[in-house]
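The records we work with from here on pair a chain with its fold. Here is one such record, which you should read through line by line:
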Amino acid sequence: MNDLVMPQVANEPVVPGLNMDYFWMPFTHNRHFKKHPRLYVAAKGNYLTTYDGRQVYDGTSGLFCCGLGHQHPKIVEAVKSQLDTLDYCAPFQFANDKAFQAAERIAAIAPAGMNRVFFCCSGSEAADTAIKMAIGYHRARGEASRIRIIGRERGYHGVGLGGTAAGGMTNNRKAFAPLMPTGIDHLPHTHDPKHMAYSRGMPKWGVHLADELERLVTLHDASTIAAVLVEPMAGSFGMLPPPVGYLTRLREICDKHGILLIFDEVITGFGRLGHHFSAARFGVTPDLATFAKGVNNATIPMAGVVVKQSVHDAFMTGPEYAAEFFHGYTYSAHPLAMAAAIATLDVIKEEGVLERVRELEKVLEGAVHALKGEPNVIDIRNLGAAAAVEVGSISGSPGLRGMNIVDECFRNGIGIRWNGDSIMMAPPFFSTPDEVARMIETLGAALRANA
């Protein structure tokens, strides 16, 4: 077939009775999608049901967020019960009991010393919240000159203006350059296939890339830098595990210069890497950590920032009748989201989820690396219950081969996703070895079909 021609699926139906004109879909090829819809109408366990009744294995746990599968009965019952009790409570100057319970539960499993929790509704909001906290913290301590945030190339911190600016994904930034906040700089990304290709787990090469932070400190002066914001494992760009020792080195440099370290744990938190927070896996404690997605299995939009008590306490000044932090959202600490989070944390503990993920990691690693040598495969990466296969781009059409492969998998009952030509997998935590094997076999066949 001619790789430069968009593949056409014979007799693929338009969804009966559904007008698809009006919904402008996020991060989606709208025109292609509406001709070839990948539309779900139901979900249960590890599978989604398409509008035409096919079962599709959810190979990315929704958007890396439904690690416990869909409609877990304990979470469903908790939300139903909460809806019968309290559907909503204003979060400004009022509160609901579940918010305090959820915050206590999260603080109990967060890295040592991180025991204050601020709730919001999405990872994007959490990133912008953390940036505000970092700048406000230094200002409260009399270092108002610390206004700069250091992000990283190929990083993703949502789509708020702060997170977009600190992120390093070109397509997210280029159309909105005039809106980008000033005072942002970036570390180099950590992915070099020449030294890292086909690494199993964390690459052994690349710790020296953290030393680029010293160069930025010299360039800007430490007195202007508020925080470094990084994903422990870069997720949205294609599952890029950190080099061995890289995060430890960032922590050392931040401590040396009085810079806060922020981990974006939106993907890595609550089990994806076999720990509640990936900070535990890497042995590095940040000053702030954003979270979302897995905290309540994506049942109700929810996110937050967990911070060291010293960061929180820096804001606790002035008269007690005055708000200390002028920030928040109408749906912060929504009662339904809080109930779902408490139930999710119960399931993680009671059903041994973290242990399951550690076993799943071994299964996924062995399976996905068996794809080495398949047509156009140029790299394979994995860490925890996450993996990516990178394929060579079609000349002049980056991302087209990745899309073709993912579409082929979908037609054969496997739901995975692509970003550019990186094909990503993040299986549900209760996946069986047979389900993982089928996902990888289907991907292998799709690679061959699009050679």
User: Anything to note?
Assistant: The two ends are 9 Å apart (CA to CA). Residues 123-140 form the longest helix (18 residues).
